[in-house]
Design brief:
The protein has 7 helices and 10 strands. Helices cover 38% and strands 24% of the residues. It is α/β, with parallel strands linked by helices and 254 residues long. It has 2 domains: 2-83, Nucleotidyltransferase, domain 5 (2-Layer Sandwich), CATH 3.30.420.40; 119-239, Nucleotidyltransferase, domain 5 (2-Layer Sandwich), CATH 3.30.420.40. GO terms for molecular function: ATP binding; pantothenate kinase activity. Its cofactor is K(+).
């Protein structure tokens, strides 16, 4: 069985694949201070009962990736391992000014989106940041847009505004909030949905100059459920997009 590990700035998502099927997944917090031995203890406890025969990893946290390499060398040295980094076959041409700047997760999502939905496509990844990644009909990564994520925006507002506080992130009954909590929920949920719709509309207009057909807009990431059903431009919701991409890249490199 293949163990896929997507290390994000806030959370780490793990998934177990049996062939093409994702049979189990977990979400844990990411702590850059966690050592290789602590990572092994945590992951080993989660996957107990599954026979791990391969590993596929992407990380946007350098400190955690360093410890993951140590963990692999110590505890998984005999297991085929793929780490998404320069030199790995991804099948995703990066049509940007500096390919080395592109996060591994964005490359992985591009491959998975094109494999599942074809192109053109737009991946909206709701995580620590909100990433909009644009995929050509040939599966090329064309670039995109990055914006502050939902949770860090709420945290920043609560920290900088004396009379405002963190609230439960749920869709309020009305856009016009009748109290501070509802007003904050409205501004957050409807505000971020409007941001996504506005960016998608502009990206679609630019894509129309070069490609035929409307792009498929795919939402993923831990915070995507907050915006699904509110943003009007999202076509598909694939919560396991990055894990699927990690499986596909592993298959290209073993």
């Amino acid at each position: 069985m293949l163990l896929t590990i997507d290390v994000g700035n806030t959370n780490t998502v793990l998934g177990i694949f049996e062939g093409d099927e994702l049979i189990r997944s977990w979400r844990v917090k990411t702590d850059p201070r966690t050592t290789a031995d602590e990572l092994w203890l945590q992951y080993h406890a989660l996957v107990a009962g599954y026979e791990v025969t391969g590993l596929s990893i992407c990380s946007t946290v350098p400190a955690t990736l360093r410890e993951l390499r140590t963990m692999i060398a110590t505890y998984f040295s005999k297991i085929p391992t793929t780490i998404v980094e320069p030199g790995i076959k991804t099948g995703v041409p990066l049509l940007v000014d500096n390919p080395k700047e592109i996060g591994a997760d964005r490359i992985v999502n591009t491959l998975a989106a094109h494999t599942l939905y074809g192109g053109p496509a737009i991946v909206v990844d709701f995580g620590t940041s909100t990433n909009l990644d644009v995929v050509s009909p040939k599966g090329e990564f064309l670039g995109g847009a990055l914006a502050p994520g939902i949770e860090i925006s709420v945290d920043a507002l609560a920290a900088r505004a004396a009379q405002l506080r963190k609230v439960e992130l749920i869709r309020p009954k009305s856009v016009i909030g009748k109290n501070t909590v509802e007003a904050l929920q409205s501004g957050t949920i409807f505000g971020f949905a409007g941001q996504v719709d506005g960016l998608v509309d502009r990206i679609v207009a630019e894509l129309a100059q070069s490609y035929e057909g409307a792009p498929t807009v795919i939402a993923t990431g831990g915070l995507a459920p907050l915006i699904i059903g509110v943003a009007e431009t999202i076509d598909e919701h694939e919560p396991d997009l990055t894990l699927i991409g990690l499986r596909l890249i592993h298959e290209r490199n073993i």
